[in-house]
Amino acid sequence: MLKRSFTLRARGGTFLPRQTMTRTRAISMASFPGQKQNTKLTSWLIGISGFGALSLGIFYFYWPRHNFPSPVAKKLRQALWEESEKSDHDYQGALRYYLEALQECDNSGVSSISDEYTGVELKIAEMYERLGMQKEAHNVYIELLYRYYDALQDTNSVPNNLRPHLIQKDLRVLIKSIEMNQDVELGKRNLLTHLLMAQEEVLSRSPELKKFFDRRKQRTLKLFQGKATGVEPIDFQALVNENTIKLDEDSHMILDLAKDSSAWEPFKDEFFTARDLYTAYCLSTKDIASALSCKLTTVEWMVMADMPPGQILLSQANLGSLLYLQAETFESQIYRLNQKREEEPGLKTDDNIIKTLRTLHRNRDSCFDMATKCYDSVIKFSKRNNKLRFNAKDLMDHSAAHAIALSTYGMGVINLHNGTLPRAERLLKDSISMAQETDFQELYKEANQELKKVYLAKETTAKTSKTDEGATK
Question: Which residues cross the membrane (predicted)?
Fold first, then answer.
């Protein structure tokens, strides 16, 4: 078999209070090798955006549209013939001709970052995949990522008017490479590197966005690293309301065409998909602070970029679940510190321990409060616009209906955590009903599990009451 060497260089949703988030199709935690599921949280990832099939279909190669040199075009015609049904889908033969076509591109001086050159490489990667050669296919994608990155970092390589197009291609290849990735740290590092590059492009095209980002960055980092003292509260209700999400006369959600989202074009779909993948990778490595910081900015930027309203709603619901997870992390730290104080009585008067506990309590309460606001804003929005829920079956995109169901579930879990059992029971039953309406199987399963906990808690409370009455008599 002919093989081309692709040299690799080293480079220096829905999340539930028992689940998680990311994009158009589910990704289980098994996708992240070597990671264990949280014993308290069942980690699963559901789509938060209808970005379309960001997989191999994105890279389908329409070779007649490109101006290839004659020797390259000849090889491509032979490759497409071998790949076709007329040749019984001979992917081995097609791969040979695509590799030869790429060699002809080199001989003809075709730019290695052009649509023509990279299009041939993407067909090579596709053939590798069809032949079950996953490692070779992944190597092609990684090499493409390095080449796009180097070109975009060199201000003389890519004209300004072509940069957005090249960033879009870079992010698409990034997403595809992540689908095949088996190395958590490599995936996380690649996501961060290429996202930062795309982010800088957006900020360079919008001074207003840059000011907003710089202002939010410090506040978010302080809060979710447990260092917040007097941090301004976040008004989550401002992210989901009639000012940010428009509805027509039939109560169908529509885009706000008055917004200027040009700074994000043409790669905003790919950009937000990649950000969600980065959030998922942060969760898989238990880097909750980074996941939460990323998600908070993502929700705010989705509003600014005029993303589809249903995706904004679901992203906000996911943010609420991340905040709940962060609150539980603070609560776990409080529990461990208190245990340590019981074991070492001298620590009960230690000023540092006392200050740490106060900060942890404050941040825990803040995260629970913000999670409640996240969920509640989605629920209130749906109550003011009933068709979002009751016409759920008629909607092609179930993101809005899923956001409402998830937020209702989240409020149920919070009430269970707070011991408000009657309200927790009602909310969980309501979320189960909504999950059934939209065939939201993951939520249906988890909501039933949480409802069992409510029943168990009610039984325990009843038994305790009877015991206390007997003791009194």
Answer: 41-63
Residues 6+ apart with CB under 8 A from 56: 126, 129, 176
Distance CA 376, CA 277 (A): 25
Report DSSP letters for 143-201, one per residue: HHHHHHHHHHHSTTTS-GGGHHHHHHHHHHHHHHHHHH---HHHHHHHHHHHHHHHHHH
Q: Using CA atoms, how far apart are residues 14 and 242, in angstroms rounded to an integer?
A: 23
What are the sequence ranges of the domains in the chain? 20-68+110-385
Angle, helices 399-418/351-384, rounded to nearest 10 degrees? 140
**Phi and psi (nearest 5°) for 438?**
-110, 15
Tell which phi-psi region holds residue 260, choosing left (phi > 0), alpha (psi between -120 and 50) or beta: beta
Pairwise CA distance, residues 225 & 221, whole Å: 6
Counting Cα atoms < 13 Å in the Cβ hemisphere of 54 gives 31
Residue 185: predicted pLDDT? 87
Element (H, E) at 45: strand 44-47
Angle at 97 between CA 93 and CA 99, to 5 degrees: 115
Question: What's the burial of 40, exposed, middle or buried (CB within 10 Å: 0-12/13-18/19+)?
Answer: exposed
Mean pLDDT, 10 residues at a time, over the chain (473 residues)?
41 48 29 34 34 40 62 92 91 95 94 92 94 94 94 89 93 92 88 93 83 66 50 51 62 57 88 91 84 86 83 88 90 91 85 90 90 89 68 61 92 93 95 90 92 92 71 60
Kind plus residue range of the DSSP H or E element containing 80: helix 70-83
Cα 415 from Cα 190, distance rounded (Å): 39
Rounded to whole angstroms, the Cα distance separating 176 from 139 reads 12
Copy the structure tokens of residue 454: 């409510």
Q: Is residue 403 within 8 Å of residue 374, measured between CB atoms? A: no
Output the pLDDT for position 336. Answer: 92
Cα 425 from Cα 439, distance rounded (Å)? 21
339-361 residue pLDDT tens: 988 888 888 888 888 999 999 99
Task: Check if the beta carbon of residue 450 is closer than 8 Å to that of residue 432.
Answer: no
pLDDT in tens, 48-97: 333 333 443 444 444 445 678 899 999 999 999 999 988 899 999 999 99
* Radius of gyration, alpha carbons of the chain: 26
Write down how long the chain is: 473
